[in-house]
Design brief:
By secondary structure, the protein is α+β, with helices and mostly antiparallel strands. Helices cover about 30% and strands about 25% of the residues.
Length: about 425
């Protein structure tokens, strides 16, 4: 499975410069431990957890939209509201650029690829543009050495090296194509189709496009949609009935596993089945509670039941997203269900083919109790208003206390991490 080993985010809201995991092109993080298949970020209100979540969402939205539309989507408020007040070491009034670096592998056996993008305001009209964009990889059969570009553009103009293994500066008959693109869009969003001779670009775009970032609310799941199966749960989960209808028809074995799981976790739930009204074509979910003669529909179910159902449906997807971001999954859930949820997440976040990498933000110590120190990162905001981040396993006394049997969430609750 494709896996993000590290990410660096610069000048994105309060995230002036944070790095998580391994970045092979940065000397300070070249030998760092990579991100784990299951990663949790904790921190106080306003520390920047939602900004990390949104930085992933920003990059995913760029696969479909131009930069101005992305900067205004999902309540972001435009480029001026996203970019940090000033860069580290910059003079007052000096413009900032948002920069994101992703270090990932397409599979465990593939050489890592570094993606770097720098986004700033155009000096002409102030609209956001791509100032620089690059994809780099180490040459084949090289275990060390500087990664070389196979895509490099500045202000929409640059080069693409043609071929599955082609890289800048290699000997032999290597074709290099000059390209000129709209700087208001990421190059990878269009070059994936234009330069099919370099499948690494298409694979990276496909990887990002298939990220799942949960913008789920229980009220969205209560909506009554028109009938018609859909292959995946969408980001808001307002198509949960359509997705269940699809599983019910095409993957009855998987659907039964979901039912067994939710029945074990939420007492009383007997069966869940889709019902299509023959007159209106509305699609209802019928929840048959063991204590009642007649079923309930989705509009009558509790927030916690709907949330747990959607998380299980997401994890049991026959073709799951390679990367999932879930913000504060504890909201609306009984605290003792959190350990069960983490167990489910860990079972699917295996780092192996067919699994998913899962990234969570949380305020809940009960959830953190189920995590290992190397899976948890703590975000703190400094006096200047910018955030810093640290892996909990890098705090020696915390690591020792967990080894002695102290629950990690309890240590956090007792201010040992703050």
């Amino acid at each position: 499975m494709a896996m993000i080993e590290g990410i660096r985010i610069q000048n994105y809201r309060a995230l002036r410069d944070i790095t998580m995991g391994r970045i092979g092109t940065m000397e300070a993080y070249r030998d760092a431990d990579p991100l784990t298949p299951l990663t949790v970020v904790i921190g106080k209100n306003g520390a920047g957890k939602s900004s990390i979540f949104d930085a992933f969402g920003f990059l995913a939205d760029c696969m479909e939209l131009d930069l101005e539309a992305v900067c205004n989507a999902r309540g972001r408020g435009g480029f001026d509201k996203l970019v940090s007040a000033k860069s580290a070491g910059a003079e007052d009034g000096e413009p900032c650029d948002i920069a994101i670096t992703v270090y990932y592998r397409e599979s465990h056996n593939d050489r890592p690829i570094t993606y770097e993008v720098v986004i700033g305001a155009s000096p002409d009209d102030g609209l956001p543009i791509v100032k620089a964009e690059r994809l780099r990889q180490r040459p084949k059969n090289h275990k060390t050495g500087r990664p070389r570009s196979f895509l490099f553009l500045e202000y929409g103009k640059g080069k693409v090296w043609i071929g599955d293994e082609a890289l800048e500066g290699e000997d032999g008959d290597i074709e290099c194509r000059q390209v000129e693109l709209d700087p208001h869009r990421l190059a990878i969003s269009s070059l994936a189709e234009q330069v099919k001779e370099n499948p690494r670009i298409a694979k990276f775009k496909h990887f990002i496009r298939n990220w799942y970032l949960s913008y789920f609310t229980p009220d969205a799941a209560r909506q009554i949609p028109q009938a018609g199966g859909q292959k995946h749960l969408n980001l808001h989960a307002d198509n949960v009935g359509n997705y269940i209808q699809y599983l019910y028809r095409n993957y009855p074995g998987i659907f039964q596993k979901v039912l067994q799981d939710i029945s074990a976790k939420i007492p009383g739930i007997g069966r869940i089945e889709p019902y299509q009204d023959p007159y209106t074509n509305n699609l209802y979910l019928l929840f048959r509670d063991k204590g009642f003669a007649k079923p309930f529909n989705q509009q009558q179910m509790s927030d916690g039941t709907l949330k747990m159902l959607c998380y299980l449906l997401l994890l049991y997807d026959p073709n799951p997203a390679p990367f999932m971001c879930i913000e504060e999954p504890e909201n609306g859930l009984y605290h003792k269900l959190l350990a069960d949820l983490v167990s489910e997440l860990r079972e699917h976040a295996t780092g192996r083919k067919g699994g998913s990498q899962v990234f969570i933000t949380t305020h809940q110590p009960y959830l953190v109790d189920a995590m290992a120190p190397d899976e948890v990162w703590i975000l703190k905001k400094g006096e200047e208003g910018f955030s810093s981040i640290q892996r909990v396993s890098e705090i020696p006394y915390v690591k020792n206390m967990v080894a002695e049997g102290q629950p990690l969430g309890a240590l956090w609750y007792s201010d040992y991490l703050d």
